[in-house]
Design brief:
The complex is a heterodimer of chains A (151) and B (271).
Chain A (H helix, E strand, L loop, with lengths): L3 H7 L8 H7 L3 E6 L4 E3 L7 E7 L2 E7 L3 E8 L4 E2 L13 E4 L3 E7 H10 L1 H27 L5
Antiparallel strand pairs in A: 1-8, 2-7, 3-6, 3-8, 4-5, 4-7
Helix pairs in contact in A: 3-4
Chain B lengths: L3 E12 L2 E8 L13 E6 L3 E6 L10 E6 L3 H7 L6 E8 L12 E7 L3 H13 L7 E7 L8 H8 L5 E6 L2 E2 L5 E2 L16 E6 L2 H14 L6 E4 L15 E2 L2 E2 H4 L2 E3 H8 L5
Parallel strand pairs in B: 7-8, 7-12, 8-9, 9-11, 12-13
Antiparallel strand pairs in B: 1-2, 1-6, 2-5, 3-4, 3-6, 13-16, 14-15
Classes of the chains: A alpha+beta (151), B alpha/beta (271).
Chain lengths: 151, 271
């Protein structure tokens, strides 16, 4: 069975990080297994964790009054879930729910933030990775707005 | 080349604006051979002619199957056709998907919206000769779950152990348990050997452009990517020039091109 450090290193978000930096992150991390159809977080709740998905699928949705939930995006293995804590007021923007049994690495946001303050080199490295994820998401959402199939 | 009369033997409503016509020769049973990716010009007296991809099974040449979206005058008239009506058919025209040439390789069949119709004959052909190919993955995107074409067939293909089918929609209600997001997000999830794989793409132009980028990021070479283009095709013979794209006439030199050949023109905003 791989160690937590090895599991962290195997996730695309942390791939290539130095062993020293991975060791620093280990105390912030825990492995979680979530059953299908479980709410992970709800819009407006305090955002305290980041999830690096290892398997399964998660739906991000938004609640529309009188019209129910609308799924706007699904995430799978290798994806990063939950960056609401990066900005004030550190709340979730969407609802997140598992579509199937999902395994993930949960990272405590406060722990990561403290670590980044204390170790600026690691903080910069993580920030670069967050920016890459966010830019990728912006690009995909722009493509969704294009309405491919109506063109 | 004169249109040949065909009788409508089945009308099937697929989606709100999309339907499938099954046709047989008006003058008695006869074979109408075609290769996956080719198209016919369908003619309705008094309305005009439109190019429509053949979406049926090449192994059943006795019947012609066309899935059509009603977007204009001629397709609107075709939408009102019912069994017994007669329409004119010219064809088949155009270059086919290189199904036989790709034997032995992994395949990504990537499509969006109505683009599944011209690729369905490829899927039938590959499944009829399944052991001859490596891993085969179908990636299909639509606007919403209600806009998924050939839904029953997708479910049947999904149930096969020798085929991976990925479906995604742009947005969905809570009752949808599938993927949500643009079709290109599914490309990294495919399990293919990029050195021995080929991709066949058909769908809206914007989708194909970004799909090609993502496939090349995965490691596929331009020579291993095939696209089917849609243009204003009128004569079907490369004579009228309406479908010209740079040095090519899409009706005659296409609609299926290798990306290596069409790439420089594919990226042009206006030609």
């Amino acid at each position: 069975m791989p160690s937590l450090e090895e599991t962290l290193a195997a996730h695309p978000f942390l791939a290539g990080l130095s062993p020293h930096h991975l060791q620093l992150i280990v105390p912030c991390a825990s492995l979680v297994s979530l059953p299908a159809d479980q709410t992970i977080f709800t819009e407006g709740d305090q955002a305290r964790q980041l999830y690096l998905l290892r398997s399964g699928r998660v739906a991000l949705s938004i609640h529309r009054p009188r019209r129910g939930q609308r799924t706007i995006y699904t995430l799978g293995a290798g994806d990063v879930l939950g960056m609401g804590w990066l900005d004030l007021p550190q709340q979730w923007f969407f609802d997140a729910r598992t579509l199937e049994v999902t395994r993930a690495i949960a990272l405590e946001a406060d722990c990561l933030a403290r670590l980044s303050e204390a170790q600026p080199e690691l903080g910069y490295e993580l920030l670069q990775r967050f920016v890459r994820v966010l830019l990728g998401k912006i690009k995909l959402l722009k493509l969704q707005l294009v309405d491919f199939y109506g063109s | 080349m004169l249109p040949r009369p065909f009788r409508v033997v089945q009308y099937r409503r697929e989606l709100r604006d999309t339907f499938t016509l099954t046709l047989e020769p008006w003058d008695g049973p006869a074979e109408f051979s075609f290769r996956p990716g080719q198209f016919n010009m369908l003619y309705q007296l008094g309305a005009g002619e439109v190019p429509i991809s053949i979406s049926g099974d090449p192994a059943r040449p006795g019947q012609l199957v066309h899935t059509i979206r009603a977007v204009g005058n001629v397709t609107g008239v075709l939408q009102r056709c019912r069994p017994g009506d007669v329409i004119g058919v010219r064809g088949p025209f155009g270059t086919p998907w290189p199904v036989a040439e790709l034997v032995g390789r992994d395949l990504i069949i990537l499509t969006g919206g109505l683009g599944l119709a011209p690729l369905r004959p490829v899927i039938y052909s590959v499944l009829a000769n399944r052991p001859a190919y490596g891993n085969v993955e179908i990636i299909y995107g639509a606007r919403s779950p209600q806009d998924l074409l050939y839904r029953r067939e997708l479910e049947r293909w999904r149930g096969r152990f020798d085929l991976r089918v990925h479906v995604t929609v742009d947005s969905a209600g809570a009752d949808w348990h599938g993927n949500v997001g643009v079709v290109t997000t599914l490309i990294p999830r495919t399990r293919i050997d990029v050195l021995h794989a080929a991709a066949l793409i058909c769908g809206p132009g914007v989708m194909m452009r970004f799909a090609v980028q993502e496939l090349m990021k995965k490691g596929l070479q331009p020579r291993d990517i095939y696209v089917s283009l849609e243009r204003n095709m009128q004569c079907g013979l490369g004579l009228c020039g309406h479908c010209q794209l740079g040095p090519f006439f899409v009706c005659k030199d296409g609609p299926v091109f290798s990306y290596e050949r069409i790439g420089p023109w594919f990226e042009k905003r206006e030609v």
